[in-house]
Amino acid sequence: xxxxxxxxxxxxxxxxxxxxxxxxxxxxxxxxxxxxxxxxxxxxxxxxxxxxxxxxxxxxxxxxxxxxxxxxxxxxxxxxxxxxxxxxxxxxxxxxxxxxxxxxxxxxxxxxxxxxxxx
Length: 119
Hints:
By secondary structure, the protein is an all-beta fold. Helix content is 0%, strand content 50%. It is built from no helices and 11 strands. The protein has strands at 4-7, 10-13, 18-24, 32-38, 45-50, 57-59, 67-72, 77-82, 91-98, 108-109, 113-118. Strands 2, 4, 5, 6, 9, 10 and 11 form a 7-stranded mixed sheet that branches. The protein is globular, with a radius of gyration of 13 Å. The model has no long low-confidence stretch (mean pLDDT 95).
């Protein structure tokens, strides 16, 4: 069982940056790691993910070019660097993990961290 804990959320002005972190309780070097978000009154949506091999990454069109995922397998952590933030990026951000390594299924989830972008 893998436990995920997000951190780094907060309040930021539009155009600013935030870096979210996700710490995993176990060794996740072979897992795909992903980020989803859920805004008030909306369904949870995919943000981005990185396969077990860090060279494979993919992002939602809405964040492509602004958000970047990186992972540190020595520390079992993954980060989401968010730049040029917009008010529509306001949401609870969730870290997730796929033991299969390629993001086909996301059985593990963190509790989420709030990101609020003011205009």
